[in-house]
Description:
There is one protein chain. The protein is an alpha+beta fold. It is built from seven helices and five strands. Helix 1 packs antiparallel against helix 2. The longest helix is centred in the first third of the chain and has 33 residues, at 41-73. The protein starts with 25 loop residues before the first helix and ends in a 7-residue tail after the last helix. 12% of the residues are buried. Mean pLDDT is 75; it is low at 3-24 and 186-206.
Amino acid sequence: MPAKKKTEVIEAPDVLPVDKTEPFSEVGHIMQLAITQNASIDTLERVMKLYEQSQSIVARQQFNEAFARFQQEMPMVKKNKTAAFNTTNGGRMEYSYASIDDVVTAVQPVLHRHGLSYWFEQQQNGPQITITCNLSHVSGHFICNTATGPVDNTGKKSPLQQIGSTVTYLKRQTLVGILGVACTDDDTDGYVPDINGNAQPQTQAKSHYSNKDFQRLLPEWRASIETGEQSADRIIRKINSKAPATPQQIQQLKAIQPRGH
């Protein structure tokens, strides 16, 4: 006789039942309640409007809480770029500024940590370019900051480069403005003072550059001159943009020579 086959019964583990029905959203429950009570279309519209208003209030509160936490952790942005331009009377001015890359690198990780993000909108009307920076929270609430400026036709830029220069500047300004980011040192980027050679002197003479600050910064300046990173004349111009350098300070800087000279 053939051997009887042994049947092994394997018990399946307990499986949680799957709910096939879609859960109602909060607004779905409200609408269902209104429908069961034979509410009119006007009533349903008012219910929807009240619900949207309450959601908007909650979203704004969540945005404000997230933005407050962001500002507690908001980093300082260093100005790592320098630029120079000729003034109207034939002089020359230099300044430092923080590029939009510097700003984004500093703030983006903190923004994302708190559910915040930003995007830009761009419009052009003739020679005027308008940039709007939108700052949004995952809750849906957002705020805007808008700035308008003319196409940058300074230098020898092509038409596309002129537009690009203005767009980059306005993006940086609107992003910094909406976030309240602080950049170290004063930023004159975007503002070219019209220095008039015929202007009358001020009644009060400007004091000389602080010798205390000069001695504090001298080792750093000495190293940058010796390595060829900066020239003595360039440092003197930077000093004069804040306060006139004394003859002794100028003499000290000009006495420093690049290595190999």
